[in-house]
Amino acid sequence: MTSPDDLLAQTLRAEAGPLVARLSRRFGDFDLAEEAVQGAVVEALSSWRRDGPPQRPGAWLQVAADRNAMDGLRLRDRQRALAVRAVAPPVDDERGGTDDRLALLFACCHPALAPDARLALTLRAVVGLTTPQIARAFLVHESTLAQRIVRAKRKIVAAHIALTVPAEADLSERLGDVLAVVYVMFNEGFVSSTGATQDRDLAADAVWLADVVATALPGEAEAWGLAALLTIQHARSRARFSDGDLILLRDQDRTLWDVDAIADGERLIERAASLRRPGPYQLQAAIAAVHATGSSWEETDWLQIALLYDELARFDPSPVVRLNQVVARAQVVGAADALAGLESLAEPLAGYHLFHATRAQLLSDLGRDDEAAHANRRALELTTNDAERRLLTTRLHRRPLDDGT
Amino acid sequence: MKYVLMYTSRPDLAAGADPEAAQLVYKRVYEWFGENAGVMADSGAELLGVETATTVRHGSDGAVVVDGPFNEAKEVIGGFSVIDVADMDAAIAVVKTWPLLEMPGIAVEIRPMVEDYSHMA
């Protein structure tokens, strides 16, 4: 079902990015353009909620953003404002929409910007979220967030970071930065969205953005891989929360999964695989697909998952991937061997709550309940996410449940 | 758009480098300046060692002259160039080919130069 907020969100994210890019070109000032569009988005949220969306939302936003940009320009530079006013605005061409959005996205995810600013700026400029919405999603102070965004925008202007898609030679490296931002956007939404207090579904926005990127760069296998991964994960979203509590994969009501979306995700994996350039997002998508097509936790093809994790660890031997590898192997080789496999990760993951949660599960499977409770407590101390805290608390009081999500 | 490139190094890390390899890299530095002559907006400067630095610092009873560089950081500035290129991506592309980047502790800071003083009037 599409709620009025969903409809608003879809319209804003369709229009905001290309509008920022067009105004940046027209005024030669990204900061001014982005500010003007943000203002228009804020106005749209209150006006459209009150009176319903206008007939042509894109035109409405453009008029509002134009007016804001002129106001902003007048404050800064009266002469230039008059000069710009004298020139008629260019005819709005839809053709540039996708390319514009992609160029804007690459600028917002530029490695010269602070990593924590990239996501915030992307959410505002490309996806059309407001600063308060982003602040709520990340549980940060609005003023802190606003400062971070302002700093990044000023740097884009001052250092001449161009709104362009990188040249072929740099594309795959720079695309990695973009995909990383989209991935984090999804995970933020996936873990923290509890429904009631959110008027934007960050995970849905990330699925949309991943699809935008893959469609715009059809030769990039990892872009399709990420689109596939997020599509499949998102297909399970309705089953992940119950009354605000996080439900783990093992316990999810599989009838709530969106089978059409899972099938879409599998098609996206095939599309990626046809390019014959495997990568970590594609492998994660394949793992997610095996989970999503298993008829139950027990019936899941764990051997296949364990093999895919082995492959993933070759691309990305990070401790977190190796932790997941251990979890998958535990299903194949048993808890005792898996627990031994955890030993080498104890040091690098000492501060990672899911390491301790996994260890707790394995210990509990082996009947070592006191040690399991101790590990669960450690996991609880380390997690900052509300839903995860509640889950771990439940585990401490009930019997521990299982691994990750 | 003009950018100042500040070449920095970590003497503590450079000490461990293989002198022969370093020799080869330095040779490529000269070639690099030749290859990039087209974007160099002026000659820039290579600086003598940080042990020759003198700093004049604000003091409540007037300026104070002290021995040493202006900051205590481990990185020292070895020189700078001014380049004139289209945008930040072009500047990064130039800097990424700086031969010394193969050696540990080497870093190049890119700073846009103020070119338009009209807003300060």
TrEMBL record, chain A:
Organism for this UniProt entry: Nocardioides zhouii
Name of the protein: RNA polymerase sigma factor
Family designation: Belongs to the sigma-70 factor family. ECF subfamily.
InterPro entries found in the cross-reference section: DUF6596, RNA_pol_sigma70_r4_t2, RNA_pol_sigma_r2, RNA_pol_sigma_r3/r4-like, WH-like_DNA-bd_sf
Family annotation (Pfam families): DUF6596 (PF20239), Sigma70_r4_2 (PF08281)
Domain RNA polymerase sigma factor 70 region 4 type per the UniProt entry, residue ranges: 106-156
Record key words, sorted: Sigma factor, Transcription, Transcription regulation
Record's keyword annotation contains Iron: no
Superkingdom: Bacteria
GO MF terms held by the record: DNA binding; sigma factor activity
GO annotation, biological process: DNA-templated transcription initiation
Coiled coil: none
Domain (DUF6596): residue spans on this chain: 174-273
TrEMBL record, chain B:
Gene3D superfamilies linked to this entry: Dimeric alpha+beta barrel
Residue span(s) of domain YCII-related: 1-112
InterPro entries: Dimeric_a/b-barrel (IPR011008), YCII (IPR005545)
Name of the protein in its database record: YCII-related domain-containing protein
Species of origin: Nocardioides zhouii
Family according to the record: Belongs to the YciI family.
